[in-house]
């Protein structure tokens, strides 16, 4: 996990590790980017645990852009369609809570936002205070995918005004990102070395 503060060093000189946790300065609230991918679900679980341990509110944020992009929507804007897209983003957010945590935790103060815009800038704007903690998932993408799309985690690490905690993919996520490769290995592990007699 990486912890980064934009421009200024963190309030503690050197991070203090406690198992898999790192000491971060006083946190007022935790912001997590959620969109339903495996990486964001893992970040959501980690953020919920962190909010529970620190007894602070959890703000789950999802960003949405109209199909075809902002330029297409501006040329032919429709308040009705905009409402449908915003509602769909909110539904994805609540579906992520169901998939990642089995629903909204009753023991946490949870707030949610579905904000129109690109994911990186939306998350950086939501985590605007120095005593916020922004938690993001770092999905594993193929080299071609990295060239075609901007990395949200890199954007947040570079532009955030608060500490950023990037949750790396789990071993299961790594295996699922290469399903054919892992199937090939498992198949060979199950095949006996000696031919049938």
**Backbone structural class:** alpha/beta
CATH architecture: 3-Layer(aba) Sandwich
Strand content: 15-25%
Task: Tell me, rounded to a whole number, the average pLDDT.
Answer: 78
Outline, from the CA principal axes? globular
Instruction: Give the helix tally.
Output: 8
Span from first to last CA?
A: 52 Å
The biggest beta sheet reads: 6 strands, mixed
Number of strands: 8
What does this structure look like?
- The protein has eight helices and eight strands; from the N terminus they run ββββαβααβαβααβαα.
- It is α/β, with parallel strands linked by helices and 197 residues long.
- The protein has a single domain (2-7, 24-189), classed as Rossmann fold.
- Strands 1-8-7-4-5-6 form a six-stranded mixed beta sheet, sandwiched between helices. A two-stranded antiparallel ribbon has the order 2-3.
Reconstruct the topology from this structure.
Layout: E1 2-4, E2 17-18, E3 21-22, E4 29-33, H1 38-54, E5 58-64, H2 69-75, H3 79-101, E6 110-116, H4 119-126, E7 132-137, H5 143-148, H6 152-159, E8 164-167, H7 171-177, H8 179-190
Parallel strand pairs: 4-5, 4-7, 5-6, 7-8
Antiparallel strand pairs: 1-8, 2-3
Question: What's the gist of this structure?
Answer:
With 197 residues, this protein is of the alpha/beta class. It has 8 helices and 8 strands, in the order ββββαβααβαβααβαα.
Label this structure with key terms.
alpha/beta; six-stranded mixed sheet; two-stranded antiparallel ribbon; 8 helices
